[in-house]
Write a structure and sequence with these properties.
193 residues; alpha/beta; binds inosinic acid
Length: 193
């Protein structure tokens, strides 16, 4: 029997990727498929809290199995910032170039360049919540490099690679990325159901 599972996101590209990865035992529905058009405010102080806020909201209204992800960049020398503010670090939501400039400016005189990307997924499955986490460690470059990807990709160099995320093909980034690792755990869990 095909099971329906809601991905609490408005990003059609993310839905497509997961739908492809879970195969034909699951039908992945998006918020658009549910006709849910409201904004879910991410008021949490951690990725885990924000992921849970999204799944709890949808579960309360629709009583459907669902999952949500929340990610961001954590820089050691900035005490974990931008963290949950990654998308709006420079003020305006989703202005990636301004966010990058803001990080580079703050790190101008800082030699400790250690950073990590983290993703937390909350899954509500048969009324119980489960979490999956993925991390990729690396360093913040002093200048941008590369033009694929999104967000902080042009300044993030993953450990063990001579290039930034923005200089890697997406298929390679997905194998080592925070999101890729968390999604792989989610998919393993679902395949065992
Ligand atoms: P989201 O929770 O996946 O929407 O990620 C929030 C923000 O974190 C994004 O808007 C980006 O600024 C940053 N971010 C998350 N994942 C990545 C990534 O893989 N590359 C670059 N930036 C990312």
């Amino acid at each position: 029997m095909i099971k329906e599972l809601v991905f609490v996101t408005n990003n059609a590209h993310k839905v497509e990727e997961v739908a492809h990865a879970v195969g034909n035992r699951f039908k992945i529905l998006s918020l658009k498929d549910l006709g849910f058009e409201k904004e879910i405010e991410e008021t949490g102080t951690t990725f885990k809290e924000n992921a849970s806020i999204k799944t709890q909201r949808i579960y309360q209204q629709y009583n459907l199995d669902c999952f949500a992800d929340d990610s961001g960049l954590e820089i050691a020398a900035l005490n974990g910032d931008p963290g949950v503010f990654s998308a709006r670090y420079a003020g305006e939501h989703g202005n990636h170039q301004a966010n990058i400039e803001c990080v580079l400016e703050q790190m101008e005189d800082i030699t400790d360049r250690k950073a990590q990307f983290k993703t937390v997924i909350s899954l509500i499955w048969k009324g119980r919540e489960h979490w999956f986490e993925g991390v990729v460690t690396g360093t913040i470059r002093t200048e941008i490099s590369g033009n694929s990807g999104f967000g902080y990709d042009p300044i993030f160099q993953p450990d063990g690679y001579p290039v930034t995320f923005a200089e890697m093909p997406l298929s390679e980034k997905n194998k080592i990325s925070h999101r890729g690792k968390a999604m792989a755990q989610l998919i393993t869990f679902l395949q065992q159901q």
